[in-house]
Design brief:
CATH architecture of the largest domain: 3-Layer(bba) Sandwich
Radius of gyration: 22 Å
Number of helices: 13
Strand content: 15-25%
CATH topology of the largest domain: FAD/NAD(P)-binding domain
Distance between the termini: 28 Å
CATH class of the largest domain: Alpha Beta
Number of domains: 3
Structural class: alpha+beta
CATH superfamily of the largest domain: FAD/NAD(P)-binding domain
Bound molecules: flavin-adenine dinucleotide
């Protein structure tokens, strides 16, 4: 399997073994049959307000469907905001060609207008400008921003960084402006099935257990939470030690004196090396990324990755949250003690939601595999073009990867689309193409398709692709 981030990331964490209780009783209880109040009937219901779900809701509403977006937390954005993984990468190819437009580009432009997004100027995309390359190498965001071209030179890519707090606000605005209804603090527990057709969902919240009915439901939970109840075939395989087989726990330190840190590193390189060694011996981790937004001076991010093959298991999630929080606070204490520049720093924020990268994936009408990365042919139903995500020489040979609408349609289930990292793909394809901009593209396409299906009175697999393509182009998607 090709490695993600060929230059920077050579090794991810292997899954952790620890004692688990599992179910400690062999008893079961029969849930009493009861009538549940239906609080809404709508055309399109989107479950999960992450990058995929927000794009789906906005797109469906803009295409004329009565749309509701349900989110378990009090904010939108999923991992891009609550997970503090606010790099929106790979928006163009290594040759400087812009590939991801549409909803994703609109979000970036709206945030940039508020000073809440930054990215390299267009004239530097795919270009080897040393001062720009140097800036991103120094920020330690290498493979997302900088890669080697065929001549072996480092070039800059079109990748953006966004402010998570402003992003939450802007996504709320976009959803409400589109005419979609937003219900936060609403945990979706299962789909309402009639045979193999999804008819709505059951939710649990402070308001109790309630139901919402819809003509099309879009699963944008990231983990594919609705799938186990639908009978849809899923693939959950992850290669141990791969990028998707990791939990992520991100925290931000602020008030770091980076000038003092840089001066120390450059003026006393031997001493710097020995401080790094001492810190690592004490169990610390001296590597970090620098906040790139102008107003985030003195902010650094630390990503703690922990290997896991069971990212929806509550015992595993609890173990990771508890141990990683302990380690991260200790790491900050060590940095403060050992590293010049960190004396007055503090942990400003740790991600309110545990970072999951893998999870359930549908086996859909089209199943994406490595062979689709090594092809240069668009599909008849292409809904997005992705820039190849740093597979070394392979990326130079195949800079574009085409995504068909069929990869969002589960095979055995009606009335359901998937618009998140649970799209139809094997673990190798998933390793490279489940990032924030990718999920936004899935969402934009799924939302528009659901609205067209409702308007035309057809199932989601019978959507007229010419109409879907026209709707995507209308809102800026870049298609073949
Ligand atoms: C440590 C780490 C670093 C990463 N770094 C980057 C990066 O720099 N750039 C990048 O592009 N990608 C990065 N990724 C990957 C990326 O964040 C995700 O793949 C992407 O966010 C997936 O989007 P999504 O919409 O599928 O799911 P998510 O972002 O997970 O959003 C799902 C949403 O659904 C909600 N939800 C879930 N279940 C339910 C439910 N049952 N009921 C109601 N709501 C529900 C969640 O609260 C959430 O808002 C990283 C991932 C990790 C773990």
């Amino acid at each position: 399997m090709a490695k993600y981030g060929s230059e920077v990331v050579s090794k991810y964490d292997m899954p952790h073994e620890f004692e688990k209780k599992g179910a400690v009783s062999s008893k079961t209880v029969a849930e009493a049959r009861r009538d549940v109040e239906v609080i809404r009937e709508t055309d399109v219901l989107v479950v999960g307000g992450g990058p995929g779900g927000v794009a789906a809701a906005v797109s469906a509403a803009r295409a004329g469907a009565k749309t509701i977006l349900l989110e378990r937390y009090g904010h939108l954005g999923g991992m891009a905001t609550g997970g503090l993984v606010n790099i929106i990468p790979n928006l163009g190819s290594i040759y400087g060609e812009h590939l991801i437009g549409g909803f994703c580009q609109e979000v970036i432009e709206r945030l940039a207008a508020r000073g809440a997004a930054c990215f390299p100027e267009k004239r530097y995309w795919g270009k080897a400008e040393p001062s720009v390359v140097e800036k991103y190498i120094k920020a330690n965001m290498m493979h997302f921003y900088v890669r080697k071209n065929t001549a072996g030179e480092y070039v800059t890519l079109y990748t953006a960084v966004v402010d998570p707090e402003v992003t939450k606000d802007e996504l709320n605005t976009m959803v409400l402006e589109s005419g979609a209804e937003l219900l936060l603090h609403t945990w979706v527990t299962e789909p309402i099935m009639e045979g193999n057709t999804v008819k709505g969902v059951i939710v649990e919240s402070k308001s109790g257990r309630q139901a919402l009915l819809a003509k099309v439901v879009i699963d944008s939970t990231g983990d594919g939470d609705l799938l186990p109840y639908t009978g849809t075939a899923v693939d959950e395989y992850m290669l141990p030690g791969s990028r998707i087989a990791q939990f992520g726990w991100v925290y931000w330190l602020c008030n770091v004196d980076l000038k003092k840190y840089d001066d120390f590193m450059t003026s006393e390189p031997d001493k710097y090396k020995s401080v790094v060694e001492e810190l690592m011996k004490a169990g610390g981790m001296p590597f970090f990324s620098r906040g790139l937004l102008e107003h985030q001076e003195g902010v650094v991010w630390i990503h703690r990755l922990v290997g896991s093959l069971r990212q929806t298991d509550i015992e595993e999630m609890t173990y990771i949250d508890v141990t990683t929080r302990r380690e991260s606070v200790k790491n900050w204490e060590l940095l403060r003690e050992y590293m010049p520049g960190f004396e007055k720093s503090f942990i400003m924020l740790s991600s309110p939601q545990l970072g999951t990268s893998g999870g359930r994936r549908i086996i859909g009408e089209y199943y994406m595999t490595e062979k689709d990365m090594d092809a240069d042919t668009p599909f008849d139903d292409t809904i997005a073009i992705f820039a190849d995500n740093d597979r070394g020489d392979k990326s130079l040979e195949y800079p574009r990867t085409y995504i068909p609408y069929r990869s969002l349609i589960p095979k055995e289930t009606e009335g359901l689309l998937v618009a998140c990292r649970a799209f139809s793909s094997d673990y190798e394809f998933q390793e490279f193409f489940n990032l924030i901009p990718h999920c936004m593209c899935f969402g934009q396409a799924a939302g528009a398709a659901a609205a067209i299906a409702v308007k035309d009175g057809v199932g989601v697999r019978d959507v007229d692709f010419a109409k879907l393509r026209a709707e995507l182009l209308k809102y800026g998607a870049i298609l073949p």
